[in-house]
Amino acid sequence: MDRGASGRRRATEHGIGAPPPLKPGAATRWVPLACIALAIFAVQALFTTGGTFRFGAGDDYYDQLGEAFLGGQLYLPTQPTPQLLALADPYDPTANASLALHDASLYRGHYYLYFGPFPGVVHAAVRVLTQRSVPDGPVQMASASLATVCFWLIVERFRRKHALRVQAWVTLLLTIGFGVGGSMLYLVARPAIYHEAVLVAMACTFAALAALSSAWSEGVLGARAVLVCGVLVGCAVAARVTYLAYAVAMGVCVLAWAALGRACWRTALGRFAAFAAPLIVIVGLLLLYNWARFGSIFETGLSYQLAGPSLSGGVNPMTCGGNLGSFFQLYLASFPRLQLHYPWVPFASGPSPVWPVWFPREWMVPAAGEITIEPPLVSPFLLAPVSLLGLTAPLAFVWGVSLGRSLLLAAIPTLGGALLMVPFLSCANGVNARYFGDISPALTLLGSLVFVAALDRAIRSGSRARTLVAAYGAFSLLVTLVVGAVLGLAAFRYTYEAQADAVGSVTEDVLVGLHLARPTSYVDTFPEDLRDRGLASSGVYEDGWVRQDSSFTLVQPSSDSSVVVRGVLSFDQATPVPPTELRVFVDGEQVGEQTLVGGDFDVEVRAPPGAGKRRIDLQFSRVQQLPPPDKREAAALLRYVGFQPL
Q1: pTM summary value
Q2: What pLDDT, in 10s, does the model give residues 39-68?
Q3: What is the CATH T-level fold of the domain 522-645, as seen in this structure?
Q4: Which has the closest alpha carbon to 417: 188, 204, 222, 119?
Q5: Which ranges of 14-117 would DSSP assign to H, the alpha helix?
Q6: Residue ranges per domain, the chain?
Q7: 518: which DSSP letter?
C-alpha cells in the first residue's frame, strides 16, 4: 500500500492539507453583478429589437462596407442606377430623390460612405467568423454593452482604491443609470448607420478609458496600458472623426500623469510615445483611405454627398469653430420643450418648426438662425444630473492631495474631451440629438467618480452629510432613468411604429382615464389636435377646412367602432350649396358613402373590425372657392372626425 497516499488521506480527513473553505459569500459575490448586467443587456436588447429580441431592423450600409472590404474594394456593392448616372446633376436632391442611395456619396460611378470606416471593419470581422451578414442591431447592442461594462470597471476600480466605505452596490446603481438611462436607449433603439457610428466610437473610447484608468486609480500607468489605450481611441477616431477630441485629451492626461509627480518625464514621454504611435498609424491609414477613394487625404466624401447638406455625422471644415458660444449653450444647457406626441413621448423627430427648447431661449443664442437643429436637445446635466458633480473634479484637492490628483487625472480625458468635442461638432454646423451621445457619457463617468468620492467623504463626516449626498444620488438616478426611458421611447417610436402603437394604446387608456390627456381617436379642435399630439394628416388647412381629398391617421379604440365625420359644407349659411358626395375610407377600404345636402352634416359609418392606428380618408365630389381675400379651394369645414365606440 502507498503509505504516502494513506497519510494524505488521513490528513485530509482531519482537515490538514485540505483546501481552505470558501469565505462566506465568495462563491456568490458575482451573482448580483451578473444578474444586474443581464437585466441591463436585456433592456438594451428590448429597445434594439423593438421588443422581439430578433435583430433585423435598420439599414445595411456598414454591412455592405464590410462586404466591400472583404472583396478588396472601397466602394459599396450596391451600384447606382443608370437613371441616376444619366441625370445632368445627380447631386440635385430634387432630381435624385427616388433614384439615389440615401446619404451615400457618389463618385465616378460608385457609392461610398463618408462615415468613419471602423464599424465596417467590425462587420467584416463578424462576416469572417459567422459566414453571414450582420445587421446594425447586434453591433450597436454589443457596443452599448461594452461601454456599460467598462463604465462599471472604471468606477469600481476607483471605489476600491479611494472609497472603501462606499458599498459595491452603489457602483451597480450608477451602472444601471448609465446602461439604461441618459442617451443610451435613444441610441440603441434606432439601428442605423448614424447611431452605430456613435455607439462604436463610444465603446472604443470607454475601453480606452478603462485602460487609462489605472493612472487615476492605482497611480501607475504601464506601457502596455497606454499602448492599448492608443489603439482603442484610434479605433474610436476611425469610427467617428470627432473623437479626436478624446484622443487629444487622453494624450494630455498621460503627460499630466508625470506633471503631477507620478513619474519622471523620461518615463512619461515614453508612455506618451507608446500611446501616440498606434493613434498616428490609424490616423495615417484614415488619410490613405480617403486618398485611395477620392484622390485627397482630406476628402471624406461629403463633397459628393447625395442628400445635400444635413446632420448626418460628417464634418465640414469650413464651419469648424464658428459660433462656439451658441454651440456650447445648446449642447450643455438645453432644456427641451415638452409636448406629448402619440404614443406619449414628449418629443417629435426631425427638424422642428418652432424653437425646440425651453432654455436657452432663441434670443439668447446668437447664431440660432444659422444652426440647423434636430430635436430633442437635452443637456448632459439633465440626461444625468450626477454629471454636474464632475464640474467640481478639478477642485477635489480640498479632499486631499492623492484623491485630488486622481480626480484631476480623470477629469482631463473626460471633462476635457467632452468640452473639446463641442468645437469638433460645430463643424457640422448643426445640433442633433444623437450628438449628445458624444458628450454625455464621459461627463456621466466623471460625475459618478466624484459622487463615489463625495459619498465616502460624507460617510466619514456624519449622517446628515451622508443623507444629503445619497439623496442627490437617488434624485440623479431617478431623473436619468426617466429621461432615458422617454428618449428611448422616442427613438423606439421612430423605428418600430407597430410596437410603439401597441404600447401607446395602453398608455393612452391610462392617461385619458386620469384626465391627463385627450384620446388620439378623434380630432375636434384645429389645429391644436393635429399639431400638439403629433397626428399625421394631409389635405387639411390649419383652420379645419379640407381639400377635396384629405386623410387622418387616428387610433381605433376597439373592433366595435364607427367613423364619425361632422362639419359644414358652406362658408355662408345663406349661400345654397349643391349636393356633395362624401366617400369614407379606412386603410384604403371604402366603408361608406353619403350625399350631403344643405349646410351642416353628420355622417356615421361602421368601421372595419380591428383596433390600433388606422388611416381615415375623406373624398368629396366637389370643392368651392372661399371668398376673398382667402381664395382657397376647399370642400368642407370639419368640426369632428374620428372613431367612436358603438
Answers
A1: 0.81
A2: 999 999 999 998 888 887 778 999 999 999
A3: Jelly Rolls (2.60.120)
A4: 204
A5: 30-48, 61-70, 82-85
A6: 59-130, 135-299+321-494, 522-645
A7: -
